[in-house]
Amino acid sequence: MQPERRNHARTGLSFTVLGLGTAPLANLYRAVPDAEADAIMEAAWEGGVRHFDTAPLYGHGLGETRLGRFLRGRPRDAYILATKVGRVLRAVPEGQGDGAGKWFDVPSRREIYDYSYDGVMRSFEDSLERMGADRVDILHAHDLDVRNHGGSQEALDARLREFVEGGHRALHDLRSQGVIRAIGLGVNEWEPALWLAERADLDVILLAGRWTLLEQGAAPLMEVCRQKGIGVIVGGPYNSGVLAGGEHYDYGGVPVAVAERARRLRAVCDRHGVPLIHAAFRFPLLHPAVVSVIPGSQTRAEMDSNLRAAEAEIPAALWEDLRAEGLLDGGP
Description:
The protein is an alpha/beta fold and 332 residues long. It has helices at 34-46, 62-71, 117-131, 153-177, 190-197, 219-228, 256-271, 276-282, 300-311, 316-324; strands at residues 5-8, 13-16, 20-21, 51-53, 80-85, 87-91, 109-113, 138-142, 182-187, 204-208, 231-235, 290-294. The chain has one domain: TIM Barrel. α6 links the parallel β10 (204-208) and β11 (231-235). The radius of gyration is 19 Å and the shape is globular. The protein starts with a strand and ends in an 8-residue tail after the last helix.
């Protein structure tokens, strides 16, 4: 059975509801051998996945290199390819690169934030070279949020100005030239995304971890996207693993309150005979603005689990019970 698709009127792109995020395949938290990464991507392709997301940040270019190599020779119009801008990678001597303890066995590079016109153009050119591509379907401005800029709203505001005055113009030019089809934004916080959605020309937004079975605080953003025809791609549907039986939440440990909420969610799912991971995957797709969900997979078992979740049918009574118990705060 092939994953269902959602057509996005604004861009003309046809998304498989299950996409593949490649950060885990770029040696995130552990080294993944080339053969293992290839096997996971092959399983995704064989399962019908045709939406692939990467970024220069992922493994300091390793994610783009691996994905580009995998896609080479496959019909170019058969899949959606997305990458990101906002960082320029600079080669440095071994041991002096960023990301120690996060990225393993990756090229030694420094991550330089740059949302200027020239920075976006340079980042995009470097990405095309790493992937062996001549175009991408979606180019996201990456990590325009408080957490990635020192926890300072003032610092984020400066980056937002840099993007609006420079980088966004570069994305617009690239779209006009036909080397990208969609201007995107990839963030972990919904508030900056809402600010940009109301002011900038955006086609799609990749929102990680903020529109999930566990968290629906982004309802104001989702409504603006619905009204403006901005497609929402949901990353991190399992909130870093806690909704898939894992021990992480939002890239860290699981707070007591989050663990209790996850326990209550699981109890309702159990009553309906539905695995929690299936409900977690399907929940974002209830919203009309959502075009695709892109969990990461670092093992073949995780990829197979995501393929099953994408095909799951969830009884309406489950959603009704979650609402009745106050576990869906702002869902559709």
